[in-house]
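During the reporting period, our protein records have gained a structure token line. A sample record is set out beneath this paragraph:
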Amino acid sequence: MLFAFYAVRRWLKLEVERQSQFILSAYKQSIKTKEQADFKSLLSNREIEVLELINSGCSNKIIADKLFISMATVKTHINNIYKILDVKSRREAIEKTSRN
């Protein structure tokens, strides 16, 4: 009888650990999904346009020419995008937004 008790106790401990890992994994995934969905709602339409051009590999000069804005304005939009996405480079911005 005592052996059965310890066997059940061990099984419960393992099951609780397994379920905890599953719940934690699901929670982390939901946070990532929410973050990815939210970034576009935080960007202006123009910032989204700039981000799409960055993702296409355009330089600041090409972005400025295509959107008929100055280079300084492009840099301002890019800095705003970096702050909103919490990134420090074009590569990071592309990686973060391509997951969406």
Notes: The mean pLDDT is 87. Residues 67 and 73 are 10 Å apart (CA to CA). Residues 43-100 form a domain with the Arc Repressor Mutant, subunit A fold (CATH 1.10.10.10).
